[in-house]
Design a protein that fits this description.
Length: 496
């Protein structure tokens, strides 16, 4: 791997600035190596004040933003720190890294018939798309977990045999989803070597045994992430609990899918395999060391480990076209312009461990003169709020009253207004990431309001968009459930 040192700087002033010295180099996980004397140096111009960038042509591209490029001195001031990680433009998938995939199929009694048949075919198709160097395990679960195949290399012989092995699965009993998650995580943790470890979990119902709370599934997701295991969940039809599956996937850096019918399963399994084979970096970790006088107020949307002024987060894997972020709210009381934090990002690819580091510097602002948040940071903060409102919509559609949903719809309309105001400030060169985020959020909110309105008004013949009619109407449980699941599925990527 080439070693690149990237230098970005601008002039410090009363209005604030951004300056960095960053290096990305092969290193042991415990400490970065020193760059070679003949390392090529490339100058990078910051896109805006308050931004530092580092990375390499063959790895990841990292942007670290301060919410405000300049902060008032000698007084407590709250701002944000955003770390944005995505594959570099020329990054190649780490195809040489083998994958160990555990496919977990719900074989409880409710899956009997076409659902289980489609799940078997989808699982077989996923196994057939794996490479010969990859490992595969297939588990089936009801109140117990059964091994269908593996762990074994995805050889031609195994691919020919997997269909017959899967055909032996029969639907029976109740559902212990947590049992299946624990078993899959344990199987992956037992395999050694430079592997990408991933679980694809399928369910069509709510758990009737084992752990059954959202908090318990969040803990399962965090435990999996700590063992470098990601879990993607697939909910089939309308009887599963989207709260549990989305919480599990969010905490383990996986994806959450809503299969509206069993016929959707092959396409979802194909997406999962495509993402795995397109992986650019795995075991991506971000470490932020806050400067003296800076303290953490809150971490958004993902679990972090905190030790004094050091904050650590696991971002899991990054595939082509993917982007993941760490958003922190901090409180700063600085005596002079200077470092807000140091940012370290490390990942594995092709058997190598790479580390990049940079220092994010802020300038001094006059009292009350810090100004608005940088658009990219403001858009990410609003994305977290949008995701929360969409999940609230989903929860309310499951259990709420029409009057409660009318209040929530008012919040969604206010969020749209905030996004409109932010969009007006985010036009122009260098602000494309903010504009794209705002557009995604607006589309998601509009779609959620429309689906909720239809769910509430379909039985009463309300006109599309006639929310008052819809609120007065008693919705069908099936339409409410569908709209709820779509809200959770839409919210999931907004909080990555």
């Amino acid at each position: 791997m080439k070693i690149h040192t990237l230098l970005a700087c601008s002039v410090l002033g009363m209005t604030g600035t951004s300056m960095s010295v960053a290096a990305l180099m092969p290193a042991a996980p415990s400490a970065p190596a020193s760059p070679a004397d003949d390392s090529p140096v490339e100058a990078v111009v910051p896109q805006a004040a308050g931004l530092v960038e580092f990375g390499s042509e063959s790895g990841l591209h990292v942007q670290a933003w301060s919410g405000h490029p300049a902060v008032p001195l000698e007084s407590s001031f709250e701002t944000y720190l955003l770390v944005d990680v995505q594959p570099a433009a020329a990054a190649a998938p780490a195809t040489q890294d083998p994958i160990h995939t555990v496919v977990v199929v719900d074989a409880s009694g409710s899956m009997k018939g076409v659902r289980l048949d489609n799940a078997k075919r989808a699982a077989e198709g996923m196994v057939r798309r794996l490479r010969s160097q990859d490992l595969v395990t297939v588990l089936a679960y009801d109140t117990q977990v059964r091994t269908v195949i593996g762990p074994v290399r995805a050889s031609s012989r195994i691919k020919d045999e997997v269909g017959a092995r899967l055909s032996a699965i029969t639907a029976r009993g109740n559902t212990c989803m947590s049992c299946a998650v624990k078993a899959a995580t344990e199987r992956l943790a037992q395999t050694s070597g430079s592997l990408l470890r991933h679980v694809v979990l399928l369910s069509d119902g709510e758990p009737t045994a084992g752990d059954m709370s959202v908090a318990a599934f969040q803990k399962l997701g965090v435990a999996a992430a700590k063992r470098d295991v990601s879990i993607s969940s697939i909910g089939v039809d309308l009887s599963y609990d989207e709260r549990l599956l989305s919480a599990l996937s969010a905490r383990s850096n996986g994806q959450h899918h809503f299969a509206r019918s069993a016929a959707d399963l092959p396409g979802i399994f194909d997406k999962e395999v495509g993402a795995l084979l397109g992986t650019v970096g795995k075991d991506v970790r971000v470490t932020v060391e806050l400067a003296n006088g800076v303290e953490l107020v809150r971490a958004f949307d993902r679990p972090v480990e905190r030790s004094g002024r050091v904050v650590r987060a696991r971002l899991g894997t990054l595939a082509e076209g993917d982007k993941k972020t760490l958003l922190l709210k901090v409180r700063a009381k600085l005596a002079a312009a200077g470092p807000l934090a140091s940012v370290r990002v490390e990942h594995s690819a092709g058997g190598n461990r790479s580390v990049g580091e940079a220092v994010l510097i802020v300038g001094a602002a006059k009292a009350g003169g810090a100004g608005d948040l940088i658009p990219a940071v403001a858009a990410r903060v609003q994305s977290s709020e949008t995701a929360r409102l969409l999940r609230d919509s989903g929860l309310l559609l499951r259990t709420g009253r029409a009057a409660d949903f009318a209040k929530l719809d008012s919040k969604l309309r206010k969020q749209l207004a905030r996004l409109d105001r932010l969009a007006a400030k985010s036009a122009g060169p260098g602000k494309r990431p903010a504009s794209a985020s705002i557009k995604r959020q607006r589309v998601a909110i509009a779609a959620t309001r429309k689906k909720a309105s239809l769910a509430r008004g379909m039985k009463c013949g309300c006109a599309t968009g006639d929310l008052m009619c819809a609120m007065r109407c008693s919705a069908s449980p099936a339409e409410d459930s569908k709209a709820s699941k779509e809200s959770f599925e839409t919210a999931h990527p907004l909080s990555k």
